[in-house]
Amino acid sequence: MVLVMSVAPVPRLWAVVCMLVPLVLFCVRPPAQRGDPVDMHVPVRGRWIACNSPGSRVPSHGVRAHGQMYAVDLLLDAADEATDDSTDTAPSPGWSLRGREPEGYPSYGAPVFAMASGTVVHVTDHLRDHRARDSWPTLIWMMILEGFLRVLGGARSILGNRVIVRHDNGTYAAYAHLRHGSAAVRPGGRVDAGQLLGQVGNTGNTSEPHLHVQLMDRSRPESAAGIPMHWSGVEIDDQRLSHRWATGYAKPSAVPDFPANGQIFEATAPQEHHVR
């Protein structure tokens, strides 16, 4: 009996350590990469809305971990272009215990393109698309318990399905929350700027389907530092603003000339694109 009582706390201690280590690693701040923004091409086509953008503040997502310092989230603008959408507001969350299916969101299934030429170093696309977290119960679940569990699960649980490309200039881009089974590339394959990589999905730590994209100094988000980027192929619509995602004036830390939170922009393809 004494022996059992003596060793019983040990597994419990290891369980606590195993839970705390990923959380501590998530809070570790990699070295900052505040140099001049690296020129890239926008990874989407059509009219989109920027949110959680480095064009408004840095760190854009509130953390430096997992290479997210200069990450941005993008949502397809489904509003009628002929109407004034400057007064749109966020829908009021209800009390349903089940969120909407991802297919009900305009961003779901939209194509995602490479921002620069390079080599694919990682592809994950087997994770299922989950329902949106668009009601109070599902939002509370995501922000508290699910969010904690995803931190413990690391980049796989946070970013969901993703493609990571090593560019010819030595930087790495991660395209995250992709649709289940949509990857159009494989590890080791060569891609050109503007080449199709996959589709927008709702995997990982998401409240609704959107594209999360970030530039990094290494391939593994767990140890990467974020790098600022500048997009070509973007024309910002100064006449329209999504108030649902707008957060007021940009902070002093904001990356200049990058779409700010709530700004609507038109994204066009590179002038030259040769699929290999």
Automatic annotation (TrEMBL):
- Superkingdom is Bacteria
Q: Which residues form the M23ase beta-sheet core domain?
A: 157-220
- Region annotation (Disordered) ranges: 82-101
The name under which this protein is listed is M23ase beta-sheet core domain-containing protein
Classification from the root reads:
Bacteria, Bacillati, Actinomycetota, Actinomycetes, Micrococcales
Pfam families, per database record:
Peptidase_M23 (PF01551)
Q: Where are the annotated coiled coils located?
A: none
Read off the PANTHER family from this record.
MUREIN HYDROLASE ACTIVATOR ENVC, PEPTIDASE-RELATED
